[in-house]
Input
Amino acid sequence: ELVRQGEALKRTEQMVDKMDQDLKTSQRHINSIKSVWGGLVNYFKAKPPESKPEQNGAPEYYANSRLKEAMMSSKEQESKYQESHPNLRKLDNSDNDFNKADLVSSVQTDAYPKNQQLRAYHQKIDTNLDEMSSGLSRLKSLALGLQTEIEEQDDMLDRLTKKVETLDVNIKNTDRKVRQL
Output
C-alpha cells in the first residue's frame, strides 16, 4: 500500500510540475495580449523548451530498496514457516512421534536434561523460540523498511506542499491579470 501511495505521490508531483509549466506559458501569452511591449519582449525572448517539465529535485520514484528487501525476505520466511508449521502443512502420520532420536542426535545432548521427555520438551521450546526469533526479525526488518519509506514520502509531501502553495499564488495572480484584461 505504501509503494502504491508513493507512486501516486510521484504522479501528483509530476502533474503539479506540468501545471506550473503551463502556467508559465499562459503568463507569456497574457503578457503578449496585455501590451505591444510585452508581445515584443516575448517575441525576442527565448522560448522555454517544450519537453519534460522540470522536476525540482524530484527523482524518479522507486520504492525504498530496504522495504523491497524486507518484503522479499518476509515472503520467503513466511513460505518456510508455513511448510514447517504443524497446523499449516499436511499431517504425515509417520512424523507423529516427531522422531525423538533425530532431535536428540541433532542437538547437543549435554545442554538438555537426561530425562527423555524433558529433553524433548526443551528441544521443542528451543525450536519454538527460534521460530519466534525469526518472526520477530522479519517484523523488525519490515518495520525499518516501512519507516524509511514513510520518511521518504514525508519529504515528498513537504516538497509537494511547497510546490502547490507556490502554484496557488501564481494561479491567483494570473487570474487577477486575466480579469484586468
